[in-house]
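note to self: the first set is below, dont mix up w the second
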Amino acid sequence: MKKSEKLIDLKSLRLEELQNYFVELGASSFRGKQAFNWIYGNLISDFDEMQNLPISLRNQLKDNASINSLRLLSKQGSNSTNTNKYLFETVDGNKIESVIIPEQSRRTLCLSTQVGCPLDCKFCATGLMGYTRNLSTGEIIDQYIQTSKQIYPNEITNIVYMGMGEPLLNYAATEKSLQILLQDLGNKIGRTRITVSTAGIPQNIIKLADSGLRVKLALSLHSCFEEVRNKIMPINVKYSLAENIDALKYYARKTKTKIMFEYTMLHGINDRDEDLNALKKLCSQLPSKVNIIPFNSIAHMISGGFSSELKPTPLARIKEFAEKLMTKDIFVMMRNTQGDDIAAACGQLAIKGKR
């Protein structure tokens, strides 16, 4: 086979596609499974490390394929927690960030699906940097591979699609990356340990429900009132909360999973008694739980405008808000801020100099 002008990214292929690719190279399909195990089980980044593949086949791969979608530029650790933030560069020179959050019994990878984000949510630094392009399946998967190598021999136990970008606006790559992650990758990350977070793209919530993947789904809610969401999340003008709630009800029925409502507390905007009552009412309509998130500073990206006026809800009110939700038998989690000293906390991921 002649050297290909465009290299095939093996990390963008499901197991069966990888096996078919090796057949196209003139090898047996089981070589594809061997390569799959090298990539995901042994975290290799060089074809020469695939020791049970013939040298001639390895040379073919060098000429026609790639297993390096991203280049790790830096790793930054938090002084207050064990959170680590990773800065990657794509082949075309764009930069993205991923985060690993270690806890007592798990290590959670927060991965990105876009370079920047087109949604412009006013409380999120990623939105303030603007949008460049979608990430490929391989670029999404490579965040898992490369961060796994950084913490080896420990393993990533949970994955959240909550980094830079809106996963459901990059639906094809997001779904395919989920399919790959849910295959046997050595540490067997199950669907109950993977969460996709969305600001609300109803037609693709339904599409994900019909995919059969049955991963957990989180809605970036932040208000139960359309007019408030319109102001802090412009995407709500196009896809209303009412449309998204209908889609979430379908997702919950179809997948038999609970919906997570993510709720960043913004002083005077969504922490009032009327907000509390509206959230109680919403949670009564479908199987759900609430993740209360403190508003983390985005001062590193703000240059004025409405975002600069946002303030965090005082901790006492956050606790009161959560406790009153729990009196209605609503399952509530209060997220502790981790990594804010390195701009790695929820809503802080962004590359300076971009807009």
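second set (the one i keep forgetting abt)
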Amino acid sequence: MKQFVNDDISLFATGSAGGGQWTQASGGEVCVLESRGDENESFFVRMNRGEAWRFASSGDLEIFLLSGTVYSGKTLLAQYSYLLVPQRSTPFIFNAVDDEVLFFVKRRHPEGLIGKLGLIQTQKANWVPGLVPGLHVMPLFSSGGENTALVRWDPGTVFQPHRHFGGEEILVVSGVFEDEHGSYPEKTWYRSPHLSRHDPFSISGCTILVKTGHLNILSEDAHSWGAG
């Protein structure tokens, strides 16, 4: 029987690449952050040069490359690449180019929100002003009430207190993200449940990958870190 991890989405949950439990898998190592009975998952994958990771199971995928570079077919994916993979596009393979590759995977069920394979090389993409001074947003994906974006916080940025309809997941890409519940350094994953409230800020500055609107019944009113 499969063992679930952080499967109660009514609860706060957190994990990190540095403090998580890693297990050997074909093509690398995996650190499971969230694994639920409805087959939704969040996890890290770590690879070394020459290893190949094969995506073959069901579900739409969102993938964010935290460190290193990989080939997917003939396409070279640089650090901080964001990849959208609809279920029908699997299987496909990542081949590690560098000595240490780390990427984050979000597997979503039911599949169908992602219409086509997509790649955003975020280091070359544009930022737009956020809702408060010091906040910069790069929208990545929006469908069915779900929203994914990169959000960059200048040092000392404070966001207004707010609630999340449909919940929120945060992956700290760099720096330290903070709220009244704690501080979350680079490569930390943080999940907040439906209608949770917090007062986020960053003293030193940070960049985070944010996903909202997917932890309850989907709604067009789901909160988004949209541009102002």
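remember for set 2: Residues 217-228 have pLDDT under 50 and may be disordered.
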